Predict the 3D structure of the following.
Amino acid sequence: MAIGPKPQDIPLIRRTLAVYKVSSILTGIFLMGLVVMMVTRYGFKRDIELNGPDAFLALSPLDTLTGINFSIFLLAVHGWLYVLYLACDFVLWRVAYRGSVRWSFLKFLWIAMGGIIPFLSFYFERQVPREVEAIIARIEQPAASQPTDATPTGATPTGQGVSA
């Protein structure tokens, strides 16, 4: 029995990888917004207000918000994007790395930190696809080098039989 992902898993791996790339970029962008929000909220005691009386987008004192609290929006959207990021990370960990070539659980957790540690998701957006594409190439390579049905077993490509 072959260890590792099967050739029929490749379409699922590629789709998951595409969603993972997008989710890691979006999670990283909203994480940067979340960092800005935390600095303004806890450092300057102000929230990001959308469509308030001062301007379209303004930093308003925490008690005086009359518009949409954009800080809460950043928190919620980043949370849901992080859930998507974790789901893609899990599917890649589970499907693309079956058997002896599978990542350890610690590597899964390390990649999960990409949605928590600023800028790390941008690094993983470049690193993880390289590793996954290398595994896909390893899966596709033996399939391309196997003999076709036109070459009988025990015969060389020139038609000469193998002598015993």
Summary: The chain has a mean pLDDT of 80. The beta strands are 46-50, 57-61, 68-69. Residues 7-141 form one domain.
